[in-house]
Amino acid sequence: MMHMNGSFGVVRDIRRAVRDLIGAGFLAAGIAGGIVILGGGGEGSALAAAIFFGLLAALAVFDARTETVPDVLTLSLILSGLVTTSAMGGALGLHAVPALGLLAVGVLQGWYTDDRGAIGSGDTLLFAGVTAWLGPWLMADVLILAAILLGVQCILMRRTTGAFAPALALAAAIVWFGGPIL
After folding, report:
1. What is the per-residue pLDDT for 93?
2. Longest pairwise C-alpha distance within the chain
3. In what helix (H) or strand (E) does residue 142 lie, and over which residues does it extend?
């Protein structure tokens, strides 16, 4: 949670968030480089992986620290997923329909709820972004795996709730590399 102990606390939290975002960028670059080295694709694939994993890492870190998922990052994830799908010759319509449907649900969810005590609209928008990247075929795989990961996290931390974005990001990464689990 952001500390509200004066402007110095807010500045410190902003600095931490920026540092974490920079770290997430380096992590994404390393993953993308690994994909190229292992023969997972050309420069386009490496750039796509860097964007995908960079945004996922940033969203996971931000949610873990603040229990919020920034709209600017989730909307960037959705847009970049659809652009990448189109640029790489993927089935844009099949990726866009569920992603944009989830985007609409997330927007409505944000308008009509206070996003407390349950999955918030940011998590829904994050899932829309993951769907834009991975397509509808892997939606259930990612969601089920994320729920399991969050459950394990809550058990290990002895909590009844937790930030969902880190579990969703990790599940998306596992499915990206491992393919379908169902």
Report:
1. 93
2. 50
3. helix 139-157
Running DSSP on this structure, what letter comes out for residue 60? H
**Which tops the pLDDT comparison, 2 or 175?**
175
Q: pLDDT at residue 132 above 90?
A: yes
What's 138's DSSP letter? G
Asked if 91 and 135 touch (Cβ cutoff 8 Å), the reply is: yes
pLDDT at 144 over 90: yes
CA–CA separation, 83 vs 99, rounded Å? 12
